[in-house]
Amino acid sequence: MIPDDTRAALRAAARAASAHAYCPYSKFRVGAAVLAGSGKVYSGCNVENASFGLTICAERSALAAAISAGETELAAVAIYTPTGMPTAPCGACRQALNEFGPGMACECTCDGPASIDTTLDILLPSSFGPRNLPAM
Ligand code: THU
User: Fold this and answer.
1) Phi, psi dihedral angles at 117 (to 5 degrees)
2) Ligand 1 centre and the CA of 57: distance in Å?
3) What is the pTM of this model?
């Protein structure tokens, strides 16, 4: 169970990160923040590229920040978009997040009243992950 104040801090970090989004092509700002096993929060934004396929989603930016800092587990992810409806993580990000926290909480917020409050295992059922590679 993640305390309400921690969840609020995670949402705030995601929102703050969206201000740094580099999205000249889509103009779609995304901010994400992950709560790591240590209790620390790491954030990231989407980083687009003129070679469109190289775009990095906000969720994977935040994930990379956490793992680069030495974290090994993620307990929650928050995603914020300055839109009327919340945005859930794309399929690629669901898979990337699954590596470090298959049961993580996932909260998606926006500028409207709607939000998505779920878990990664609901977003990515029957997932493939490290547990499927026991010999590794
Ligand atoms: N985007 C994210 O950052 N996260 C997602 O889960 C979905 C999409 C970004 C990628 C691209 O910069 C823009 O949103 C439009 O697809």
Assistant:
1) -125, 105
2) 5
3) 0.97
